[in-house]
């Protein structure tokens, strides 16, 4: 697996070594990928999520792209603007769960809408996948808009979260 591209972003799955650098030394990761240096800091919640992703990648390295964080890199800026995680292989219902974040200085510019469109389309083209699932905190209106722009359908909620689904039908993708 190499990477996915849109007009404005590169979406690159991180192998175990690169994911470890993302957690421990973003400056070194920027060097490895020949990216512009920027002062990016992962908050503790994202760092914990990345450490969990790393444990999954190490257990199933041949399928790492299903368990890892994918870097979102601005082509124009040649810098990391966020990440999107796949949280495992398709389950018995054909579902793949994603989670994502954009560094604050890059929010509101459409990068995540573009990223989700391309990555969800790729996921839905894989065998055994029927739906892509994302959960969002109820107060995260920006994330709701990103999912809605991609055709996501709200299908469930808990006290704190909304659950969204993307499918070939909701995204208006060609259905075979």
Overview of the molecule:
This protein is of the alpha+beta class and 176 residues long. The protein has a single domain, classed as Gcn5-related N-acetyltransferase (GNAT) (Aminopeptidase), CATH 3.40.630.30. The protein is 31% helix and 27% strand. It has five helices and eight strands; from the N terminus they run ββαααβββαβαββ. The protein has an eight-stranded mixed sheet. Strand 4 and strand 5 form a beta hairpin. Helix 1 packs antiparallel against helix 3. The longest helix has 16 residues. The two termini are 24 Å apart.
Short description:
This protein has 176 residues and is of the alpha+beta class.
Q: Round the Cα radius of gyration to an integer and report it.
A: 15 Å
| Count of the domains | 1
Number of helices: 5
| CATH-defined architecture | 3-Layer(aba) Sandwich
Number of strands: 8
Give the helices and strands as they follow along the chain.
Answer: EEHHHEEEHEHEE
The CATH topology corresponds to: Aminopeptidase
Mean pLDDT, as a whole number? 94
CATH class designation: Alpha Beta
**Looking at the structure, what is the overall shape?**
globular
CATH superfamily annotation: Gcn5-related N-acetyltransferase (GNAT)
Largest sheet: 8 strands, mixed
Residue stretches low in confidence (pLDDT < 50, at least 5 long) are none
Distance between the termini: 24 Å
Proportion in β-strands: 25-35%
Secondary structure category: alpha+beta
Helical amount: 25-40%
Within the largest sheet, what's the order of strands? 1-2-3-4-5-6-8-7
């Amino acid at each position: 697996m190499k990477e996915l591209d849109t007009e404005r972003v590169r979406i690159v799955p991180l192998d175990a070594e690169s994911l470890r650098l993302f957690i421990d030394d973003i400056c070194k990761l920027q060097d490895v990928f020949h990216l512009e240096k920027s002062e990016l800091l992962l908050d503790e919640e994202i760092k914990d999520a990345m450490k969990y992703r790393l444990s999954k990648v190490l257990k199933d390295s041949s399928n790492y792209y299903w368990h890892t964080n994918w870097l979102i890199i601005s082509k124009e800026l040649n810098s990391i603007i966020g990440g999107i995680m796949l949280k495992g292989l398709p389950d018995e219902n054909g579902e793949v769960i994603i989670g994502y974040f954009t560094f604050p200085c890059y929010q509101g510019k459409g990068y995540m809408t573009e990223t989700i469109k391309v990555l969800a389309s790729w996921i839905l083209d894989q065998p055994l996948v029927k739906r892509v699932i994302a959960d969002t905190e109820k107060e995260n209106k920006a994330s709701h808009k990103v999912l809605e722009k991609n055709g996501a359908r709200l299908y469930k909620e808990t006290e704190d979260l909304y659950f969204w689904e993307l499918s070939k039908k909701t995204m208006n993708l060609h259905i075979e």
